[in-house]
């Protein structure tokens, strides 16, 4: 061995240990493991063995009333809706296997957009594969780098993700605070592009936005306005168009986003607008352009449901009756609710901590009642709740049965 060779030999060193990418989830994993070790069922892993109707299912062999499905208008088992889906499945097959801008636009997709245009009395409609993608796509396409998205601090994840995808600057204002919205807008450069994003009904607490005050303020500062009516379509307003219609400002809103997975009773999302360039968004909206379109059977069910919702006044009235009765009944039992009065079909029962919320949730499930348990980060920091989503197909007798279940569970767990 010569000197040159000897000098070229380096001692072996071990490569640094790369961090486990799952390490950041360790606190949540530990919390979940501790919860399950205590004998509590996983609130986020429920399996429906059979679904009998919009309000009833079988969970682990037990007949269960459904009070946590967002099936507000009960359209999932409507005979006309089901028949339309079956017919489209027979005629057009199980899927399109393509994007809307390529081979994925069938006659049914255009018919669905036409139904939305008629329902909202607007000039343009775009159908997306999910409601999440509708927000993701429209927000990210409208507001890019150098633009501002002004949004409620409690906005849905899809709205925040749309801001991130578009690389817009995010300006938050305090939840449903009109003065704080104006304060934020007043500080922005007058020449900057601005999009104010609001929600008609906020899904966790079930409260509604004061759109009649917020929309004019947004216009005062030159902002475009997008309203997410996912949880209000179908039963707010004279024609079921949402909170913007109910509060008389729908003509001032530039874009309305919605979903088919709530009142319409299937899956998908949409944007409607009177802006003359709306159709151009189909070519530049990445979540629309690069996603396979909805199966023909799905858009057929959505189209039929939307057209029936135009004439669902009786259903809307009964849903409001259910909401008022359940809200008052829960308060009379001693439960604390997120709103002083029923503001929507969502009633949020507030619990002091996660342990009490989980125990209450499980006690209700054991009696045959399914509700949603929610905790941070889905809810504001420190807020634990049971979310009840009423349906127009819940009978008055079922509402009374639900109240009896809450009373028994509340006493058994010490919640009341």
Provide key terms for this protein.
15 helices; alpha/beta; 16% strand; seven-stranded mixed β-sheet; 416 residues; Aspartate Aminotransferase, domain 2; 2 domains; Aspartate Aminotransferase, domain 1
Overview of this protein structure:
By secondary structure, this protein is of the alpha/beta class. The protein has 2 domains: 39-73 and 313-413, Aspartate Aminotransferase, domain 1, CATH 3.90.1150.10; 79-309, Aspartate Aminotransferase, domain 2, CATH 3.40.640. It contains 15 helices and 15 strands. It has helices spanning 3-8, 26-37, 79-92, 107-120, 131-142, 157-166, 178-186, 211-220, 243-246, 281-284, 286-289, 296-309, 313-333, 354-367, 396-413; strands at residues 50-53, 56-59, 62-66, 124-128, 148-152, 169-173, 194-199, 224-228, 255-259, 269-273, 336-337, 346-351, 369-370, 372-374, 384-389. It has a 7-stranded mixed β-sheet with strand order 4-10-9-8-7-5-6, with helices on both faces. Strands 1-2-3-13 form a 4-stranded mixed β-sheet. Helix 4 (107-120) runs parallel beside helix 12 (296-309), helix 5 (131-142) packs parallel to helix 6 (157-166) and helix 13 (313-333) packs parallel to helix 15 (396-413). The N and C termini lie far apart (85 Å).
């Amino acid at each position: 061995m010569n000197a040159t060779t000897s000098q070229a030999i380096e001692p072996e060193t071990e490569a640094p240990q790369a961090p486990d990418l799952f390490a950041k989830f360790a606190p949540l994993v530990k919390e979940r493991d501790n919860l399950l070790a205590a004998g509590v069922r996983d609130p986020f892993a429920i399996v429906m063995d059979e679904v009998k109707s919009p309000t009833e299912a079988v969970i682990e062999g037990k007949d269960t009333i459904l009070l946590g499905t967002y099936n507000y208008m009960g359209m999932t088992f409507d005979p006309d809706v089901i028949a339309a889906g079956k017919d489209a499945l027979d005629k057009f097959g199980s899927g399109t296997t393509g994007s809307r801008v390529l081979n994925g636009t069938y006659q049914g997709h255009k018919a669905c957009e036409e139904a939305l245009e008629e329902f909202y009395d607007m000039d343009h409609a775009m159908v997306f594969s999910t409601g999440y993608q509708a927000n993701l796509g429209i927000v990210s396409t409208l507001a890019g780098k150098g633009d501002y998205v002004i949004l409620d601090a409690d906005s849905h994840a899809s709205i925040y993700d749309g801001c991130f995808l578009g690389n817009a600057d995010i300006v938050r204002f305090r939840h449903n605070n009109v003065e704080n919205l104006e304060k934020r807008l007043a500080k922005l450069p007058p020449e900057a592009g601005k999009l104010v994003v609001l929600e008609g009904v906020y899904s966790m607490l079930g409260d509604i936005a004061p759109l009649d005050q917020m929309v004019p303020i947004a216009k005062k500062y030159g902002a475009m306005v997008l309203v997410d009516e996912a949880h209000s379509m179908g039963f707010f307003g004279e024609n079921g168009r949402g909170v913007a219609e109910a509060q008389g400002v729908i003509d001032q809103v530039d874009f309305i986003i919605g979903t088919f997975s709530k009142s319409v009773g299937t899956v998908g999302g949409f944007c409607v607008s009177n802006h003359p360039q709306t159709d151009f968004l189909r070519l530049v909206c990445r979540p629309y352009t690069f996603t396979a379109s909805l199966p023909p059977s799905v858009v057929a069910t959505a189209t039929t449901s939307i057209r029936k919702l135009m004439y669902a006044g009786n259903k809307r009235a009964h849903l409001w009756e259910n909401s008022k009765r359940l809200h008052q009944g829960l308060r009379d039992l001693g439960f604390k609710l997120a709103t002083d009065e029923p503001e929507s079909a969502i009633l949020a029962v507030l619990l002091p901590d996660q342990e009490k919320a989980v125990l209450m949730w499980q006690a209700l499930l054991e009696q045959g009642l399914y509700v949603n348990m929610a905790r941070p980060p889905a809810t504001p920091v420190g807020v634990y709740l049971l979310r009840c989503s009423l349906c127009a197909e819940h009978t008055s007798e079922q509402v009374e049965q639900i109240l009896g279940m809450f009373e028994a569970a509340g006493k058994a767990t010490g919640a009341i």
